[in-house]
Amino acid sequence: MGKLSSRLRSRARNARRSIQSESKDMAERMRKHAIRLTSGSIPKSDIQRYHFFARYSSTTTQVFSTGRRPNSRKKMRVTARGMSAPLLPINKHDGTLQRSLRVIRVGEGYRLFFTSPFAKYILRTGGTKWMVDRGFWHEMQKLASNERKRAAKNVSRALRKR
Question: For residues 74 and 63, is the Cβ–Cβ distance under 8 A?
Answer without folding.
Answer: yes
